Amino acid sequence: MPALSSGPAVAFEQVGKHYGDAAAIDGVSLTIAAGTFVALVGASGSGKSTLLKTVNRLVVPDRGRVLLDARDVADGPAPALRRRIGYVFQDVGLFPHLSVAENIALPLRLAGTPDAAHAMAMLDLVELPRAVATRMPAELSGGQRQRVGVARALVTRPGLLLMDEPFGALDPVTRESLAGAVKRLHDELALTTIMVTHDMAEALLLATRVIVMAAGRVVADEPPAALLAGAGGTAAQALVAVPRAQATRLAALST
Ligand SMILES: Nc1ncnc2c1ncn2[C@@H]1O[C@H](COP(=O)(O)OP(=O)(O)OP(=O)(O)O)[C@@H](O)[C@H]1O
C-alpha cells in the first residue's frame, strides 16, 4: 500500500508537569525529526507516559509547549488534534458492545466522515482476516484485539503514532509479530512514531532513536548502535545490560 500520510516533526520545549510538589516531567526539551521511530524507556515512574500524553493533550503541561510541525498542540480543539494522532495503549480500550468493524470505523463516524470500505481495508493493513469484522472484541485473542486497536488508531490517516506499552500484555511470540507489523506500518505510512516501552531489547530492535528518562528528565538520547557501543551514561547502560546479560546466558546454554 502506498504511503497515506507523512508524519510531523515533534518538538518539546522545556515541558514540565507537576503533580502536587512532585515533578512528573522536569523541563524536557527534544526535537524529533519527521519520520523517526523513537522509543521512550526508563524506570517505572520516570515520566514516560506523562510526556507522551502531552502530545495528544491527555496531559496539559504546566510549563513549556509541544509543537507538531512548529504548531503548538494547544492551539485549536483537542478532537481535531487527536484525529491527526494515532494512540495505542496497553489495554487497548475497544468498545465491548461494538463489532470489530464498528470499533475501527468509530473515529471516522465521530469525525463526520464515515467510510466503511476504508475501515475494512484497515484490517488488511494490520494483517487480520476480514472475517473478524463482524466479531465482538471478546471473541478475539489479546494479540488480535491489539491489532484492531492499531487499525482504529490509524483509520483517520494520522501522521503521528503514539504508543504506550502497546505490546505489554502479550505473549512473547505475539509481541514480536505485532511489533514487526507496527514497524512495517511505520515505514509504509511514513509515520512519526513515539513508543513507550519497559523493554530495552524491543526499543533497540524497533526504534531509530532511544530516549532514556529518569526522574522526569531525559538522561540519554542515542541511536541503538551507540547505546550498544556503550554510550548514554549509567542509567542507559543499566537498561542495556539486561537484554545483553540474557543473550549471554542463552548463548551459554547452547554451548
Ligand atoms: N494523574 C496523576 N496524578 C498524580 N501523579 C501522577 C499522575 N500521573 C502520573 N503521576 C506521577 O508522575 C510520575 C510519572 O508517571 P508516569 O506514568 O509518566 O511514569 P512512567 O515512566 O510512564 O511509569 P510506568 O513505566 O510505571 O508506566 C510518577 O511519579 C506518577 O506517580
Annotate the secondary structure layout.
Elements: E1 10-19, E2 22-32, E3 37-42, H1 48-55, E4 63-68, E5 71-72, H2 78-83, E6 85-89, H3 100-110, H4 116-125, H5 142-154, E7 160-164, H6 172-188, E8 192-196, H7 200-206, E9 209-214, E10 217-222, H8 224-228, H9 233-253
Parallel strand pairs: 3-8, 3-9, 6-7, 7-8
Antiparallel strand pairs: 1-2, 1-4, 4-5, 9-10
Helix pairs in contact: 3-4, 3-5, 4-5, 5-6
The structure holds adenosine-5'-triphosphate (ATP).
Keywords: ATP-binding, Nucleotide-binding, Transport
GO molecular function, one term: ATP binding
Domain ABC transporter: 10-240
CATH evolutionary superfamily of the largest domain: P-loop containing nucleotide triphosphate hydrolases
SSE order, as H and E?
A: EEEHEEHEHHHEHEHEEHH
The computed structural class is alpha/beta
Rg (CA only): 18 Å
Total strand segments = 10
Tell me roughly what share of residues is in helical segments: 25-40%
- Unique ligands: adenosine-5'-triphosphate
> How does the overall form come out from the CA principal axes?
globular
CATH architecture annotation name of the largest domain: 3-Layer(aba) Sandwich
Largest sheet: 6 strands, mixed
Number of helical elements:
9
CATH topology of the largest domain: Rossmann fold
Mean pLDDT: 91
User: Regions with pLDDT < 50 over 5+ consecutive residues?
Assistant: none
Strand order of the largest sheet: 6-7-8-3-9-10
Q: What is the straight-line distance between the termini?
A: 44 Å
Whole-number tally of structural domains:
2
